[in-house]
Amino acid sequence: MSKIRFLQLLFIFYLLGSCTQETWNVEQENVLRQGVLTRGVGPMEDAMEGLKGTTLGKKLIESLSIPVKFEYDQSMKPGTMGYVGRGVIRYNGLSDPFGPLLFHELFHVYQMKEIAVASRNHEVEAYMAQYLLVMSIEGAEEKDFYAVSTKFVDYIRKLAKYTTWSVMDTKGSIKFQRLYEKALVELRKHHLYGTNTNYTEEPGPYSFQNLYNFLSIK
Ligand SMILES: [Zn+2]
After folding, report:
1. How far is the CA of 12 from the centre of ligand 1 (A)?
2. Residue 37 Cα, ligand 1 centroid: separation in angstroms?
């Protein structure tokens, strides 16, 4: 069975298998709405508990090979979160709900393990993972996912649909490659991930290798 076909079946399984009532709004990475700071009462741990209540969140947390630590970092822009390596996710400013962004950062831990690398490929994949999480939550609608730009969201949706619904020969993955490339173009234009930042990228052919590995874990 091809990887894309396999991923497609798994995706369908997760959509059917979602069991949580909770619906989260999604915030763009590092552009979280600034809410009331709840420092000292374990807000990140609360969010982790929320994620454990979802099929994908539980699976991701259980799949991490290194322990995760949270560090409140006052020097960061309020409403931001980021993976800095060695299992450390730094944050400043919280707004609730923000579970999907935490899922995104945890997916970076899964992708990169000890050493964080600023990579646009990692971002496309992490946003795809985030999209799958959001859409697996019961009652979720397409508008519940937002990231980077309207066009970027559109490409992520199309990549997911292409991955999910394509029952054609996956040698026809030219379309997948093209959509992935378009998603990269959107990231290149973005101030957080763009060509004027330290983000780099790997050339194609592109795949969601880490996501595939993650979803393949029994
Ligand atoms: Zn990211």
Report:
1. 24
2. 22
Ligand 1 centroid from CA 166, angstroms: 27
Measured over the CA atoms of residue 127, residue 128, residue 129 and residue 131, the dihedral's sign is positive
138 Cα: distance to centroid of ligand 1 (angstroms): 24
180 residue type, one letter: Y
Q: Tokens representing 14?
A: 């997760």
Please state the pTM of the whole predicted model: 0.80
**pLDDT tens by residue, 18-69:** 333 233 333 445 444 333 344 445 778 888 998 999 999 999 999 999 999 9
Q: Give the distance (Å) from ligand 1 centre to CA of residue 168.
A: 31
